[in-house]
Design a protein that fits this description.
Helix content is 19%, strand content 37%. The protein has a 5-stranded parallel β-sheet with strand order 2-1-3-4-7, sandwiched between helices. A 4-stranded antiparallel β-sheet has the order 8-37-36-35. The protein has a 4-stranded antiparallel β-sheet with strand order 9-10-11-12, with no helix packed on it. The protein is flat, with a radius of gyration of 38 Å. It is α+β, with helices and mostly antiparallel strands and 965 residues long. Helix 6 packs across helix 7 and helix 9 runs antiparallel to helix 10. The longest helix has 37 residues. 44% of the residues are buried.
Amino acid sequence: MPSANTATRYAYDAFLSYSHGADAKVAPAVHRGLSRLAKPWNRPRALRIFRDQASLEASPDLWATIEAKLSASRHLVLLASPQAARSRWVAREIAYWKQHREPATLLIVLTNGAIHWDHTARNFDRTRTTALPPEVFGWFEAEPLWVDLTWAGSEVELSLDHARFRQDIGTLAASLHGVSKDELDSEEARQHARTVGVRRGLTWGLVFFLVASLVFGVMAQTRGDEAERQRKEADGQRRVATVRALLAESENRLTDDPRTAVRLGLTAYSVRPSTETRAALVDVLQRTPYAGASRGPDDVGQFVRRLSDDAGVLATAGDGTLRLWDVSQPGRRRLLHRLTPPPGDVEHIAFSRDGRTLFVAATKGHALWDIAKPAKPRLLPGLPGATGLDGGGFGDGDRTLATVRDGKGNSGRMDLWDVADPDRPRRLASVTGVYDAKDVEMSPDGKTVVSATGKITFDEADTGKITIEHGSGMTVWDTSDPARPRRLGRQDAWEGALAFSPDSRTLISSHARTAYVWRIRPSRAPQLLSRLRGHRGAVTDAGFRPDGKAAVTLDSEGSAVRWDLARLDKPRSRGMLRDGDLGPGEDVAFTPDGRYIREVDSRDAVASWRTDSEPGPWQRAQTVADPVAVAAVAISPDGRTAATAGTRALVLWDITDPDRPRQLSVLRGFSESMTDVAFSADGRYLAGGDGASRVILWDASNRHRPRKTATLRTRGPVASLAFSPGAPLLVTSGNQPRFTGGIEGWATLWNLKDARPVETRSYTLKSFTHAGVASFSPDGRLLALPGAGSGLFDMSDPNRPRHLKWDPVAVLQQDTAFSAKRKLLAVGESVYRVNGTSLSEPVIELPDAPGHGGRVAFHPDGNLLAEADDQGTAVLWDIGDLQHPYTAGELPPLDDSVDDVAFTPDGSTLLTGGGDGTLRLWGLGPLPAAAHDPKRLACQVAGGGLDRTQWLRHAPGLAYQDLCR
């Protein structure tokens, strides 16, 4: 080994070798400390230290540059940690140093992990030392001195003002200076005294210049103000540039790393709140199907994890534990119960399809639990005589359980059990000589069982020839008669997925990166229909949507692929669901409503994905409500019933399932086309009006057969109807032609207290140019009546309405709607605050709609405003932040007008009706929650904001903020 030449002049006193991931905070502090300790007053630094991020120039050959810096350094300072021990760059730097320097020139600073010296072996103890690279072992002949900085990682601030840090840096600096610690301390004291003397001399000089400084102060202040203005302008430009970079990176990561994409959008909105950043964040939250992930404690070790069929309960078993978790809420989990698993290692977990029974198989036993109440599970009697079980699956309405026990060659066994009475299980049949007996799945109807194995074993004969003793595959059994299972056929090559469709007619299996779709028919071998490809890793599991028309497959890379199975012979991929933080997938399932997919990975994370992740509102369903047109739509207060006003008929619809609206009844009796429809606040009464000056009232207590209670004759064609929320009061309004030309508006108040409605007030509406929509405030105190002067009435006393003066707008001639929660009133494109019985100046002036502004409706939480127009669309305005309203969504354009819009009470769906006679139901997904509070939703979905390291990478120069604290 070449010896170090002491006469050589080096450009650097030391080269810092460290792991960037582990010592990003400690390395700069050590660099500063060595540079400043015992620094002469007239020199820029005490020691010249090379640290790559601070001293490395741009170079196309990075290692050549580092090698040159190593050659120019007198010492190598290794910041030792487990991460540094694994670093390829640190290993190369140590190897170079061993080749060109003596061991005494390598100084060690321990920042994490452990270092232990074996005095007997005269070497570092390889079994106990975790912080040193392999290249260091065997180089030192005697135990070297190292500095312990493991305590520094938890310190907020590291500088020479920190007594312990100064002491440790002094020990390291003494070796670099080639002096003792005492000498270095004495030199530091001398330099400090000299510096104090110089400062005192300079003080008198500064006094001399003080007067001159005051003279020039005014001029400097002026220039300073200008500099401050320029600094603020530059800071603003930097923030704008950072925000745009954040938004661009958020867009780039949306597909493969949705959690980070949401965090970047959240950061952009928090750093610079604006219409642009709010819209971008809401857009990301709408477009990503990622709904959040919860992480459990069992992220290491051998665990078996299984989701219940409804994806609401997770069972995890391993290391002598068996836990049940509530994972029904995206991004959250709650421990339900700890159970004692059967003896041995858990091999398999199975839930009954109704989620009431749990089966666990272990190497030395098995167990059944009644988990109808997951927080209070009850241990059930075991299967009599069953030992060494490897798998199990429920079927036939959970009345039957199929189990398998693996064996050598074809010596496996399959049993069918009657578990209809879980307290008295009994064996129905037993089949021996089963070749595939490592896993088993039973169809929901109990008529088919699939046993499978992914095991492959080899046999080496005396001749040295290797043959396959056992190959992977699956066997299909006809169990229509559970007492006599019959083998239908075997398919080679299986590993991973076994899933039956809810109707038991379709099976998904897998091998390697391909899943297979099979048709299952009674008493016949399965028929291969199609292959599902495009996975990143080996397929590990699959699950069907409850309606059987869609499926999801999971792979060993943690990715899930959605499939449209409308045609089983030609399945279509609906896209891949991927989060870069997820590990290999273990189980996947749909929620009962089909709105979410949940997957659990090998790191004990449960991720939730929305299946309604279309960008913007998407059509859930449509149905023809009238042969000509739908003029108005109303929804009952309980959200179960919708009413559509068509040509001479009113139709009631069951919208309990918004994906499948169902006609309930058709109400007739109108002589001209209907114009409006409304439910009373309690949902009991229904009113419909038409162009023939007629209003009909029904008792809608029975949705299938509403009963007509009254017919009202009005002063002219009806334009709108509205029930008072706080009194038995109905307002009807409209317009009629004048004898002298033009039109004249009218409004009538009807008392509905008695069996026969009574007209209590009638108004002639001035300056009435078109029929607008009347509306009551949620408390019934205010009535907005288009065309009636200022358009506002105080209805505190329903028998004596009081006309209110309102200066900002002389006449209301547009459609109106009140917000139930936010005390807002929408009048066409203007939104006002409601204060008691008065209105503020407009707080929002929305841009003009493409066509004539039609009816408006507030979302139940008041943060979205829907506006229909006659150009065949409807616009959703995000008004959650009244300072930054914007278009959050727009319905796809139709061939005819959209005449009315209405939100369901739960806020999940928007209903529209229009000139083509069709009732459409639109899903809103996360848009309402995003408009309500985008920051809160982003924190819930992403599980928090950027950490400090991510913030430094994506928002350099901006002060760190914990955005979700």
